[in-house]
Amino acid sequence: MKAKMLQIELNTGPEWSDEINWLKRSEEAAKAAFSVSSFGDLAEQNFALEISIKLSNNDEVQELNAAYSGKDKPTNVLSFPLVQQDLLESLSNSDDGEVLLGDIILAHGICSQEAKEKSIAMEDHASHLTVHGVLHLLGYDHQVEADALIMEAMEVKALENLGIANPYAEQHI
Fold first, then answer.
1. Phi, psi angle pair for 100, to nearest 5°
2. pLDDT tens digits along 88-111
3. Which of 5, 19, 60, 124 lies 20 to 30 angstroms, CA to CA, from 70?
């Protein structure tokens, strides 16, 4: 019998507190993102759907951002999809046993600074960024305003399902 479920491969850097169960938070955030997307059923298929998440530092994220986005600065989260958006629908027919959906990397310094500025818990902000990253892996984007509003609404709903307040509430006042 094949593995059935969404699996998170987590690599946590030394900057990230070991008092927080980052794997559990990452799994919950990823499942919440799937549940609000049009690909919710993929997480329940008869194959292992894997996402690699790295909780890293600003320097590594800056290097990756420069190499892949041409932006020589750190950012809070980067996503690297490994499945083309137009192929996501066909994943439900996979008999490979395992599908690597993509990689997500978070920068501790930026995440910590943003959480402090927003007066929210670091683990809640990291969950938000994980939801955001998973939605990118599922083909959602925010390059144009209409798409940004759709993605934002999905993030808000996913976070609500996790018991995390709307991170965009102040922007719409």
1. -90, 110
2. 777 665 556 788 999 999 999 999
3. 124
Q: What's the pLDDT score for residue 3?
A: 47
CB-neighbour burial class of residue 19 (10 A; exposed 0-12, middle 13-18, buried 19+): exposed
- Report d(CA 81, CA 132) in Å as an integer: 13
Per DSSP, 126 falls in state: H
Cα separation, 167 vs 92, in Å, equals: 32
| CA–CA distances in Å: residue 135 to residues 47, 66, 95, 126, 151 | 20, 22, 24, 14, 8
Q: Which residues contact 117 (CB under 8 A, 6 or more apart)?
A: none
C-alpha closest to that of 42 among 71, 73, 5, 70: 5
Reported as a pLDDT band with limits 50, 70 and 90, residue 2 is very low
Q: For the residues 8-14, what does the mean pLDDT come to?
A: 97
Q: How far apart are CA 56 and CA 13, in angstroms?
A: 5
Query: What is each CA distance from 98 to 3, 30, 135, in whole angstroms?
Result: 8, 17, 19
Give residue 95's pLDDT.
Answer: 59
